[in-house]
Amino acid sequence: MARLVRESYDESQAAGRLRVPLAAWRWAVGSGLVPPADAGPGLWSRAVAEAADPEQVRAALRGPIGAGVAADRLTEALGEPLRCRPRVTAAAVGHLAHAGLLVRLGGDAEFPDVHPDQVAALARRRDLPALLDRHVPLGPDQAARRLGVRRVDFDAAVRLGFVSPVGSVEIDYKRQGGVTSVPLFNAEEVALLPVVRPWVDWRAVRAARAGCRSPLAALDPVVPGRDWVLLAEVARMARVGRAAVVNWRRRLADFPAPAGGTEVHPQFDRSAVVAWLLAHDKIEVPVAMPSASLVVVGAGRRTSRFRLDDPHLVLANDVEGEDVLSGWSTDADADELAALTSRESGASVGRLTAPGTAPLAVLGEVRLIERFRSGAGGLRVTLAWPAMLRGTAEGTAGGVVRHGVPYVGPGEECVCHRHDCGGMVPADSCAEHGRAVGPALEWHPGGGIRCTALQHSRAAAESAGTAPAWPDPPEVPTYI
pLDDT digit string (tens) for 47-78? Predict the structure, then answer.
């Protein structure tokens, strides 16, 4: 009787043919050591199987790690604090393997064993947050975390029709009710909610206190099949003017067709518009909250750096007013900020870099005026300082640019550097100011609101043909 010669092998048969672990064969295929299946889905030809070197295949595999360990390493790669982003779970590792980003070497398909080197390579990718959003669905609690709100607020968003489940998973809670079906939501759709629903006060939703009614509860639900938007709202989504959207519609043939409205005020399906905006790079999926970088200078010129997420900076337009900055912080940072900005310390801001504002600095009197704990567990801090102390930050290391207004006019020998506001920075070689025993100067932040007020005062004086009316000298002048 003739012996049957096998012409193709599946992964188990190929591993048996080489007498290597199944995980080793899977890794050899996933890492490119062995060519991909060439005899059909999941099948390798006899020539490929026999050409593989068993020793190389066996040596290429290091000890696999479980899905839980891989999840912890990816969570660590996301960085701390995990603001508005859930921890990576073992189930998420299964989704990443299903998407082809990780090779399943063994274990349960939902919680696979994976190669540590591949996990490390994935952790180093700068687009890791975007990959997680794209391939890992979220349960309700995780979705609430991703949005930065309480679970009750996310449930309200679901009832309103802002977001809908894309699937479900059966979870056995054992003693807590047995098997339960938990809905799953697309992480990108969840993250996009503040972008595609710009008229909702998401800052208020995120700051809702525990036990308080959700701000979303007062809104009307979306009428099924009629979630339409006007061109003005499309412009708000893309953060452009309405004229830009009109221009896109006129110039680009694939702009969505109106779903209703009138010829003068057409309405468009929101989901179609969002898909178009994403495809044309007019909007982006937020992978994290915007943040501000804050350098605070305390006693002894000791500097400390802080990160404030979702910063809200309100700059006063009056010299007598106050600037206010708020943002989400960690408990440890909030404690350090409170110590640095106490009345005894007299802290100043060496450099503040916030979205939408040029880098600024503050000479002193920075105070922590509020620590607020939201219902979602986040801690929001609020800082304030006199507006007249705000100025332009100098260089990347920080420090405010300062101008001095002399109360004694400079003479012919003065070589100090002059500014538009009439102030000066004394030069070491200046016989009148750089080496003088005590020239009376009023320091103010350059480029700040005080500097602007002095520029206007100087311009008004020059147009009137009179000398600049400098303010009265302080009780204790600054000496150089």
Answer: 888 889 999 989 888 789 999 999 999 999 99
Rounded distance between C-alpha atoms, residue 383 and residue 350, angstroms: 14
Please name which of 377, 384, 364 lies closest in space to residue 312, comparing C-alpha atoms. Answer: 384
Query: In 3D, which of 133, 128, 67, 120 has the Cα closest to residue 94?
Result: 67
Q: What is the pLDDT of residues 351-401, one digit of tens each?
A: 999 998 889 999 888 999 999 999 999 999 999 999 999 999 987 767 788
User: Taking a C-beta distance cutoff of 8 angstroms, is the pair 403, 451 a contact?
Assistant: yes
Determine whether 127 is exposed, middle or buried from the number of CB atoms within 10 Å of its CB (0-12, 13-18, 19+).
exposed
291: left (phi over 0), alpha (psi -120 to 50) or beta: beta
Count of C-beta atoms within a 10 Å radius of residue 48: 19
CA distance 429 to 444: 22
pLDDT at 171 exceeding the cut of 70: yes
For 99-149, what is the HEC assignment?
CCCCCCCEECCCCEEECHHHHHHHHHCCCHHHHHHHHCCECHHHHHHHHCC
pLDDT in tens, 404-416: 887 767 777 788 8
Q: Which two tokens stand for residue 221?
A: 């639900």
177-190 pLDDT tens trace: 678 889 999 999 99
Greatest C-alpha distance within the chain: 120
Two structure tokens written together for 197: 């629903």
Per-residue pLDDT of 18-50, as tens digits, reads 999 999 999 999 888 999 898 889 899 988 888
106 closest CA partner among 170, 15, 9: 15
Phi/psi of residue 332, each to 5°? -65, -45
Handedness of CA 401, 407, 408, 410 (dihedral sign): positive
> Residues with Cβ < 8 Å from 46, sequence gap 6 or more?
5, 6, 7, 8, 9
Position 293, amino acid: S
- Taking the C-alpha atoms of residue 127 and residue 118, their distance in angstroms, rounded to an integer, is 15
Q: Side by side, which strands form the sheet with 260-261?
A: 228-229, 266-269, 260-261
H/E stretch holding 252 reads: none
Helix/strand/coil for 375: coil
For 313, the token pair is: 């900076």
Q: Are the C-beta atoms of residues 226 and 258 closer than 8 Å to each other?
A: no
pLDDT tens, position by position, 97-136: 999 999 999 989 899 999 999 999 999 999 999 999 999 9
Amino acid letter, 441:
L
